[in-house]
Every structure is written in structure tokens, then in C-alpha cells.
Amino acid sequence: FYFRNKHRPFLLFVSLLHVHTPLITTEKFQGRSRHGLYGDNVEEMDWMVGKWLLDVIDNEGLKNTTFIYFASDHGGSLEAHRGNAQLGGWNGIYKGGKGMGGWEGGIHVPGIVRWPGVLPEGTVINELTSLMDIFPTVVHLAGGAVPQDRVIDGRSLLPLLRGTVQHSGHEFMFHYCGAFLHAVRWHQKDSGTIWKAHYATPVFQPEASGACFGRGICPCFGDGVTHHDPPLLFDLSQDPSEANPLSADTEPL
Questions:
Q1: Each residue's pLDDT tens digit in the chain (253 positions)?
Q2: CA–CA gap between residue 70 and residue 57 (Å, rounded)
Q3: 205 contacts 213 by C-beta, under 8 angstroms
Q4: Looking at 178-244, which runs of residues are DSSP E strands?
Q5: Number of C-beta neighbours around residue 182 at 10 A
Q6: Is 253 exposed, middle or buried (0-12, 13-18, 19+ CB in 10 A)?
Q7: Which domains does the chain have, with CATH numbers?
């Protein structure tokens, strides 16, 4: 692919099976990580990205002309386990995990961007963006224009990555579980405050587990969710773990 397109623009999308159950890990990487089979799977994915993608791009002299974006489509799976051993990922301070359309652990993932000579090295951006932003970003890079006959939810990442703007173009973001709206966030303009309202949240099994071990994955509707009226409200700028829902008593404003 690279050799055929070395002298013309190309778009390569790679969706890895790795870091997803079943954790298919080749013999070469089994036992490499102290974090078990999941860690082995991460190590093999890391090797694949480096060896098959980054090294080839560098060796072909395409390093400074290729925009690379590495990200995940959801947070780590908490329910994946064998016996007492957890096989899935770890979502840090964020509540919940994969299959949960509202909680931060299901939707809040890191992204890594590389474009030497164009984007500054070692920059950390804490603004929230969306995978929907890939489309307008790539269209912009290719010299095209996004369709004008419909609403495009994505925003080009380039102003944020280049530092010409300090805040994400998303004032509101809507978080669905399947076809059901579970939560919405509001990033107040010219402010660091981020509000998040939950209209429905999964019923954890067991209750304090933060996951749905009884079902294998949290459902999006029916008896597997709790509806909130009024919605659960959090100030993510002060409470990123979504541990303390606000009320009119605690937050009159």
C-alpha cells in the first residue's frame, strides 16, 4: 500500500483486533507483561503499530508529510474476566467502562497525534474532542470542503493541535448508548467549567462494582438502566470521577 501511494496522498485506516476480548496474543508476546494476557495484548499492539506503520512511514521518507492519529473507540472493558482475574482494561479515575454511554470511563479515552515538523512535539491538550472530528480534519488536510447540505457534528482538530485556539469547538456533546441518549455535557464558552447531565445510567451488578458482571456488559435500556428526572448533574471540572452529583441544596445556582 505505502509503496503504491508513496508519491500521492493516501488515507489508511487500521482497526486492530487487539486489546479486545478474546485477547488473541501470539506466542512471541505471551508472558511479556506483568499485567497478564491483557498487558501482553497491549505490548503486541504497540509493536505492530511501531513496526508495521510508523517504521514503514519513516523508512519511506513520509514522516514529515503524514498526519497520524491513534485513539480508541471506547474505554476499557471492565466485565471481561476469567474466574477472579480481570482481563479487561483500566479507566483510571473515570467511572464505568465500555458499553456505558454516559459515564466517563466508557467514553473518555486518550488520543495520540504525530506530525513532525508541523505539530509541536510533546504538547498535551486537555480539551475534549470527538472521533467525529476525524472526518472534517482529513477533509481539511486534503484540501476539500465538508458537505454544506447537512449538519456536520465534527470539528477540525487542526486549530487545536496547532495552538491557534485554546478550546475545543464542541460546546455541547451528546453521549448515546446504542440509540438511547444517556448523557450530555456542556463546556461553558470562555470558561473551564464543564457540566454533565445523566438522563439514564446502567444498573451495576453488584451495585458497588462499577460494572455489570451479572450481564457481561451493561445494557442501554429496559430494566438494565435507571432513568433520572431531574437528571444527575456533575461539575466535571471539579469532579472528573463523577462521584458527587449536585443538587439545588448543594449548588443553588
A1: 557 888 888 899 999 988 888 888 999 999 999 888 889 999 999 999 999 999 999 999 999 999 999 999 899 888 887 777 777 788 999 999 998 989 999 999 999 999 999 998 999 999 999 999 999 999 999 999 999 999 999 999 999 999 999 888 899 999 999 899 999 999 988 788 999 999 999 999 988 888 998 888 999 999 999 999 999 999 999 999 999 999 988 888 7
A2: 15
A3: yes
A4: 180-187, 194-202, 225-235
A5: 27
A6: exposed
A7: 2-170 (3.40.720.10)
